[in-house]
Amino acid sequence: MPLEEGQFSVGGVVFGRGCPVEVSDFLPGAPDAEENDTTRPFTDGTVFGIDRQAGPVHTWELNTSGAYTAAECLTAWQQLAAAWNDPALRSRPRAVTELRARVYGGEEVVCYGRPRALDAVATQLIRAGVVEFSADFRAVDSSFYSATPESDLILDLVTSGGGGVTWPVTWPITWGEAPGQRSDALTNPGPNPVWPVITIEGPVSQPSISILGTDITVYLDATLAYDQTVTIDPRPWDGTVLRNDGASLRGQLSGSRLSQLQIPIGTTFISFQGTDPTGTARAVVSWQRARSTP
Q1: Which residue from 192, 104, 183, 115 is spatially nearest to 146, judged by alpha carbons?
Q2: What is the DSSP letter of 263?
Q3: What letter would DSSP give residue 94?
Q4: Which of 17, 34, 142, 178 is the most buried (most CB within 10 A)?
Q5: What is the pLDDT of residue 163?
Q6: Is there a contact between 151 and 183 (Cβ–Cβ < 8 Å)?
Q7: What is the mean pLDDT of residues 85-89?
Q8: Which residues are CB-contacts of 169 (< 8 A; sequence separation ≥ 6)?
């Protein structure tokens, strides 16, 4: 269910405006910087190295609402505490949950990470159901993503019009959409780069995905049957290459690192190549707009 302005959701538990647990303040965190600066030898100044960023911590000041009964407020507090202490989440390496937010005047956005602290601040009025507490959430990265995905970019392996095929040919043919066509273009309006989630649908052998104009290409050393798919997910909280039966093909992927498979701001052309005797294979590229503020 979509959030209203001034509402948040963690692990499916909604809080904020109009809820038993209200938000008195929300502070989006800045990413923790890992700097590699050094001083210039024998003179003034600083030499800048490569800066890395850890995920930020987002914090709230919360209180149960006087517009609800004491029992309703305490139940809402318990539900939020259960979401912050989810054993199924914290017992699985790399597992994350969604933080959804819709600040006043904004659209609904989502980031990924784990709840951390949930601390009671004042309980003097707990008999009346009023409790004040603080909470925080550690995100994987510094971006907030649109809760509504953009339209998929679909790339097939059928040659475009004009030119055609020169006969005779040797089967199977390696088909490839020519770069520069509209069907290959993904336009990222910004303000942040985005992660493409790419699902390759068989039948196809030795498929590859390239971001044209760069040296970024990934190759999958595998053959997919007509009823098989592989999803390449480079997002920082995922980083997997999974076939539709759950098998990992990460070991069969070569070329660029998954962390490099990012779409910059502006219009980018994406190439899908592979060997397909039927011309029915395709790659579906899904993505969400990204920004640094909610």
Answers
A1: 192
A2: B
A3: T
A4: 142
A5: 41
A6: no
A7: 94
A8: none
pLDDT mean over 77-105? 93
List the structure tokens of 13.
């538990």
Reference 160, options 137, 131, 139, 180; nearest CA is: 180
Contacts of 276 (CB under 8 A, 6+ apart): 157, 172, 175, 203, 204, 205
Contacts of 67 (CB under 8 A, 6+ apart): none
* Alpha carbon distance 60, 47 (integer Å): 37
Residues in the chain, overall count: 294
Asked if residue 39 has pLDDT above 70, the reply is yes
Q: CB–CB of 291/98 below 8 Å?
A: no
Is the pTM value of this prediction over 0.90?
A: no
Cα separation, 146 vs 75, in Å, equals 30
Domains of the chain, each with CATH number or no CATH: 7-146 (2.40.30.200), 153-291 (2.60.120.860)
Q: Of the candidates 201, 181, 228, which has an alpha carbon nearest to the alpha carbon of residue 285?
A: 201
Average pLDDT, the chain: 88
- Smallest Cα–Cα separation from 279: which of 152, 173, 200? 173
Closest by Cα among 9, 29, 5 to 107: 5
**Is there a contact between 226 and 220 (Cβ–Cβ < 8 Å)?**
no
